[in-house]
Amino acid sequence: MLVRQLALEQNQPVEFYAHVVDQNGQPLEGAKLHVILSRTDEKMFETTNFFSRQMGDEVLNVPLELVSDSDGWIRLSNVTGNFLRVESLTKEGYSGKDYYGGISFEPGGRRNPSSDIQMTNAWNPQKGYIFHLQKIEGK
Fold first, then answer.
1. What residues form DSSP beta bridges with 102?
2. What residues have CB less than 8 Å from 17, skipping those under 6 apart?
């Protein structure tokens, strides 16, 4: 029971807010943000599964596609996990940087960005992490 409790405590509330803008700072609707949410699999601890599993089997990596709204906002909440990794941001006719990083969600409400320090804004619903996309000429 203690192992189960410790493992499931790794799943913390996840809040992620981002704002997608163009080169002029204008919001972009319809940008697709691809993220991977890592979390502990609760089903790992079902009595029929537990003893047949190996260490590491409890980790689920859930791919999610989030789409910016008409104001350029992307919001993710009401889920739990321990790490959110940003894979890519795409929008037809636009380009942007390839690597963004991620956020670890730790017990006690601690959050840590994995690379870009500005990612700290991603858990602030008023600021959000700002993604900049550049319009490709001729598109």
1. 85
2. 73, 74, 75, 76, 121, 122, 123, 124, 125, 127, 128, 129
Interval 2-25 mean pLDDT: 83
Residue 51 to residue 7: CA distance in whole angstroms? 15
DSSP assigned state of 115: S
User: Which position has the token pair 């260490």?
Assistant: 55
- How far apart, in whole angstroms, are the C-alpha atoms of residue 88 and residue 23? 18
CATH 2.60.40.10 fits 2-135, yes or no: yes
Q: How far apart are CA 89 and CA 106, in angstroms?
A: 25
**Residues 42-95: tens digit of each pLDDT:** 776 665 555 555 555 678 999 999 999 999 999 999 999 999 999 999 999 999
Region 98-107: mean pLDDT is 85
User: For residue 82, how far is the Cα from the chain centroid?
Assistant: 10
Helix (H) or strand (E) holding 8: helix 2-8
